[in-house]
Amino acid sequence: MTRRTWIGWQFVAPFLAVFALVFLAPIVYSVYLSLYRTRLIGGTSFVGAENYTKALHDPQFWSAVGRVSLFMVVQVPIMLLLALLIALAIDSGRLYGAAFFRISIFLPYAVPAVVATLMWGFIYGDRFGLVGNINDYFGVHLPDPLAPDLVLASIGNIVTWEFVGYNMLILYSALRVVDTSLYEAAAIDGAGQWRIIRAIKLPALRGPLLITTMFSIIGSFQMFTEPVVLKTIAPNAILTYFAPNYYAWQLSFGGQQYNYSATVAVVMGLITMLVAYLVQARAVRKAG
Amino acid sequence: MRMRMTRRRALLGAAMSITLLAAGCGSSDDSTDEAPAATTVSDADVEAALQAGGNLTVWAWEPTLTKVVAQFQTKYPKVKVNLVNAGSGNDQYTALQNAVKAGTGVPDLAQIEYFALPQFSLSKAVTDLSAYGAKALDGTFSPGPWTSVHSGEKIYGLPMDSGPMALFYNKEVFDKYKIAVPTTWEEYATAAEKLHTANPKSYITSDSGDAGFTTSMIWQAGGRPYKVEGTDVTVNFDDEGTKKWTGLWQGLVDKKLLAPTPGWSDAWYKGLGDGTIASLVIGAWMPPNLESGVKAASGKWRVAPMPQWAAGEKVTAENGGSSLAVTEASQAKTLAYGFLKYATVGDGAQIRTDEGAFPATTAQLTADAFKNKEFPYLGGQKANEVLSEAATQVATGWSYLPFQVYANSVFNDSVGKAYTGGSTLQDGLKAWQEASTKYGQEQGFTIK
């Protein structure tokens, strides 16, 4: 009995070792860090849950959470709807040059986020960028995309540009595996294109749509590269607590508050897990 | 391999601390903090260390140090100096703080700007140089930088360069719109309005909120917002000097007379080149930056004294500038001090001045060759006459926070709102004061 159990563990051990090292250890270490406090004067001391109480009452942290939540609620549906429309269009077979269309929409995903943001930063510039050129050329005065009240929308535009192709590809590949006999049957029954989309294609996309939604939600909560890169050209619009990850980064590298930074990271991880779980639970219940 | 390295280092550390303990017991009942000061290193010891040789790692981004290192190694062939650019400013401080915290990979010497030095001396990341005879260098450096490397009686670095402020202006633009070079801030504000009215694309200068610039301007205006005595810290932006500056600058912000271009961005360099940013009030280290970054405007820029708050006054402030410091973790402090002295007061001072750095040493500042040097970029102007005079006029009594690096990093969160129309400079500074004191309290300082 015992021997059999040990053999099982031996087979699982290599995986468990790697899993513990690269997945569990960093999380455990973050939690460990979050229970202490290091000060410039007075050194390190154990403070228990004090950092967590502080995070729960930290207006800067919650403003960051609010900002990425707003971003998620607005940007994710727009991006996924666009991805869905494009996937359906390419899959319809009525598009001329579908392969070219597909690859050119996917291409931005291959551009590193830093480069993409730099490029869009130049476009957004209202003095020397494309926006500035348009203003000069047409004698108009477009609102500054990097102003504090517009910068989140501008980041949404960059993120949509970057990820619409990636999501489109997931949805498109799901459409490709739909059994063609279903379409034949639909044609025999005299179903039109809209009917086929509603009755065959959308149900087939339920799983992939859930996956892309989850990825996008997690991606929104992890927003980091875009604000960091834009900070240099829009220092007053991007605050050091613009997004939760940015805030954690600033705490640890700007303020040497490693312990509180770990706390923020842990809390944010929990919030992301919770939201992702709720979305999934809801989707599963609907499917059931 | 890695394991063995760590082990050996740990053993070395243990041996070191035993030696230190022994020294402490032998001499007196002083706390271990005072132990190094008791064993003074003489110039002869330093020279011996240089002759004996060894390895040194230097973290610096200052470009003229490359030549200093080359010459140094020719003079002391047994010393091998490894000059590493670990990033500029904050990037390097982050790397250095991480290395100090980790206890490994700490360089022997590091370039640290004056505003950041208190933070590193407080956390004991850099070592007190008075034990190595740094006190004897009193009078070698101009007063501004020399004060900046002091913390009480202790000396935590040697000045490498300095940044007394001056007015750099684009003469072509000023001439075109018939604007006289302003000598007071009132004239400066008038000039700003005149220029922008004449050409709506041109601005007297650019500012979108810069902590270093703001504190330097308050410094010149007579404000002393930071008071630091050990771990007692006061932050107060509600004084006359600060209000003098916000009064003037708020007017320029409100009338949109400042280009909203962040400093050191591509747009900024372009604006300096095409005349849309017509002047800069900045440290004396600026000429080489103009030469390399703004080639388009060669021959057009000139230097004038910093505008004053009252006609006839002669008061300037420091803006930027770096020291070179020996780290506490260095295993070769005596040797490191040898290099430090070579680079800052020895042959290195002249080498760096020849390479275009703005010196902090009085010998270099007052040398005829330095003062008479003509800058082709500045239309042949003997710019150092203006700049070295500015170095002697730096107002005294200024100090930075022992956590200025952090404070500067959150400057735009609060004061930035004044530039986007959501607040005023005075209110922004008040919010910055609150953020600074909050951080100070969290870090265990006594805020008064």
TrEMBL record, chain A:
Principal localisation: membrane
A UniProt-annotated Pfam family: BPD_transp_1
Domain of life (superkingdom): Bacteria
GO CC list: plasma membrane
InterPro entries listed in its UniProt record: MetI-like, MetI-like_sf, UgpAE/MalFG_permease
Keywords: Cell membrane, Membrane, Transmembrane, Transmembrane helix, Transport
Membrane topology per record: Multi-pass membrane protein
SUPFAM superfamilies: MetI-like
Residue spans crossing the bilayer: 12-32, 68-88, 100-123, 150-172, 204-224, 258-279
Record domain ABC transmembrane type-1: where: 65-279
CDD domains documented for this protein: TM_PBP2 (cd06261)
Localization in the cell: Cell membrane
GO BP of this protein: transmembrane transport
Family note: Belongs to the binding-protein-dependent transport system permease family.
UniProt protein name: Sugar ABC transporter permease
Automatic annotation (TrEMBL), chain B:
Signal peptide extent: 1-22
Keyword Transmembrane helix in record: no
Highest taxon of source: Bacteria
Positions of transmembrane segments: none
Keyword Cell membrane annotated: no
InterPro entries: Bact_solute-bd_prot1 (IPR050490), SBP (IPR006059), SBP_1_CS (IPR006061), TAT_signal (IPR006311)
Keywords for the protein's UniProt record, in alphabetical order: Signal, Transport
Pfam families: SBP_bac_1
Family: Belongs to the bacterial solute-binding protein 1 family.
Protein name: Sugar ABC transporter substrate-binding protein
Source organism per UniProt: Actinoplanes palleronii
